[in-house]
Write a structure and sequence with these properties.
There is one protein chain. With 156 residues, the chain is mainly beta. Strand 9 and strand 10 form a beta hairpin. The radius of gyration is 16 Å and the shape is globular.
Length: 156
């Protein structure tokens, strides 16, 4: 399987999509499903990933515009700056390509997971940590009680 892309959805409903070619280490684990009332007269199935680890290669650090406001310089910044500034990734969505041999087609399967949100803030997730390595790659870890170092050792 190949990772086609991953989208990070933020608490403020903005998002950033990174192509799979720019993803190194990738782990989505400790997935739990719950069915709960999310508002009056609305019950939803929620899949939550309690451990998310993503390495984004330095080549993905490109110019980005908040909310796709391309004509507003005030909303322009670099991708890594946005991912590190607020610590507010609320969910992730990614596509996996299966690449069946000999078919010439690549069916995709899409996955959507909320991430574990901890702490008292509605705007910053205490479980989210980021780190830029000396070679310029960005590491994102979302795991309560875990630090970047808990996941960096197995990854170069």
């Amino acid at each position: 399987m190949n990772l086609k892309q991953i989208t990070f959805i933020f608490e403020n409903c903005d998002s950033i999509t990174i192509e799979g070619t720019y993803i190194g280490a990738f782990l989505v684990d400790d997935i739990k499903t719950s069915i709960r009332r999310t508002s009056i007269n609305s019950i939803h199935r929620m899949d939550t990933a309690y451990t998310v680890v993503v390495e984004i290669l330095k080549e993905a650090n490109k110019e980005f515009y908040d909310f796709d406001l391309y004509d507003e310089d005030d909303f322009r910044r670099m991708t890594f700056d946005r991912l590190m500034e607020y610590g507010n990734i609320a969910s992730i969505q990614f596509e996996l390509e299966e690449n069946p041999a000999g078919t010439g087609q690549s069916p995709c399967t899409e996955y959507y997971y909320y991430v574990n949100w901890t702490g008292d803030s509605k705007y910053t997730n205490a479980a989210q940590k980021t780190y830029v390595s000396p070679c310029g790659n960005l590491y994102i870890v979302i795991a309560d009680g875990k630090e970047i170092e808990d996941f960096l050792n197995p990854f170069p």
